[in-house]
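Worked example 2:
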Amino acid sequence: MPRAKDLAEYGLDADEIEEIQSAFDAKPRNSGGPVSTEVERLVTAFDCSAVAIGIVRFDSGVVPTQGGVRFGFCEADPLVVDHERKIWMLHHDSPEVAPMACAESSEQFLDALLFAAEAIVNRVKWKGRGLEIVHQCSERAGSATCRDFFRSVVGGL
């Protein structure tokens, strides 16, 4: 998490600093219901609704939906764990559009997302190596079919 002192040097006021720091803070919840995957466990055990990694943000809880359980969003598009425990991105208003593969499992999704987050934070080190990041993320996600998803997550790195 960026230190308040460092953020203040950019001319941010206390409210802006708190808002930025909240994106790094997942507060524990008192209870969590039965879950079947690690990403569901994360979203039910912690309030991750303020956490964002690039254009990926977690939901305030898990929500049963067509095709599985929604746990977050990539911009406006729902992220879902299906019944085979694979992660997919659904199109937000066109259910006829084929889902985009994100990971072979929730553990692999979290691993790949962590790698993407580290690349985003260390963007100077990774500048101009976006395709390498996408390749590394898709390997961690368990399939080359996940490249399009991670290409959108890491954007112009």
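The chain has a mean pLDDT of 88. The helical segments are 4-8, 14-22, 38-45, 106-121, 123-126, 130-141, 147-154.
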